[in-house]
Amino acid sequence: MLNDTITHAERELYLTLLELAQQQPSAYEWLTQLPIWLSDIKDKANYAHAPAYQASVARLPTLAVDNVDLDSNILTINARLNQSQHKQTTALLKQLMPWRKGPFQIGGQVDSGQDEGQQAAPIFIDTEWHSDWKWQRVAPHLGNLKGRRVLDVGGGSGYHGWRMAGTGADTVIIIDPSCLFYHQFMAIRHFVGSADTHETGRYRTHYIPVPLEALPEHSQLFDTVFSMGVLYHRLSPFEHLQQLKGQLVKGGELVLETLVIEGDANTVLVPHDRYAQMNNVYFLPSVAALIGWLEKAGFSDVRCVDVAVTSIEEQRKTEWMTYHSLADFLDPNDSTKTIEGYPAPMRATLIAKK
């Protein structure tokens, strides 16, 4: 029997935007575009694997879920899982590989009424990235997310968006144009179910499969906007900063995490070809230069709250992401450099006000 997880989640998104539009008329522009956004991501002409991804989500079994912890490092869905369900669920989730952002766990709840031999171990989705490590670095510096509307730009599978909801955000909208990531989010949504509803009965965590530039400009709908791991992929970083600013309410908070290099306010690396084997990396500023960019874009109270070199323990190959990872992109004789000879990945998190 097929589930209606995607249809229900998309209906919740529509109703959330409709309610928001009654308070903030700029949300009506989102509503007019929503049907196109949601149909395009399922169009086989655009994404050859879309029908297969949809089928994988639709075939996920319904489990007896006791509770969901959205505020733990491993996003945990405590559910009763028998051997048959474990096998079916694992196979379907692996059809949505590679899993890059997480981790997630499904299962682990003991069913006292079930034969011990039928009870299955939990399914642990050990993703390429320890996204929980990034959240641990960022979270202590955030303003209170409780009751706030949050936009997570380039949110991947949705791990950080779920964590934002877990800290009490009223509404979280994740955007990312990836067809795979959209369906990974829907797979987790299937098991989370209504665990993230607030007092209105609406889901709090939503996903729109579009890039930032597809959103209506100057919506000014969000109290907090996150852009983590996106800026260095943009051909025009200043345009990206302006687009982020346009989604914030006056006085809203921007959380920006991106690759940086050592240097002064005039230091910016522009990789000639690839950076750590990525061919879509354009600008890596120093922290000082990035602060200047944000101030020039009109942000205030700019502060750098964290700088961390990415380790091969934080980003690595796993059973759920079997392709090359960071260890393959570093100089085998000098881990402080990429395979191209650039400084190894180092990420800074900056917080600023509109």
Automatic annotation (TrEMBL):
Class of enzymatic activity (EC top level): transferase
InterPro entries assigned: CmoB, Mo5U34_MeTrfas-like, SAM-dependent_MTases_sf
Keyword vocabulary terms for this entry: Transferase, tRNA processing
Documented EC number(s): 2.5.1.-
Reactions the enzyme catalyzes: carboxy-S-adenosyl-L-methionine + 5-hydroxyuridine(34) in tRNA = 5-carboxymethoxyuridine(34) in tRNA + S-adenosyl-L-homocysteine + H(+)
Function (record text): Catalyzes carboxymethyl transfer from carboxy-S-adenosyl-L-methionine (Cx-SAM) to 5-hydroxyuridine (ho5U) to form 5-carboxymethoxyuridine (cmo5U) at position 34 in tRNAs.
The name this protein goes by in its record: tRNA U34 carboxymethyltransferase
Lineage of origin: Bacteria, Pseudomonadati, Pseudomonadota, Gammaproteobacteria, Moraxellales
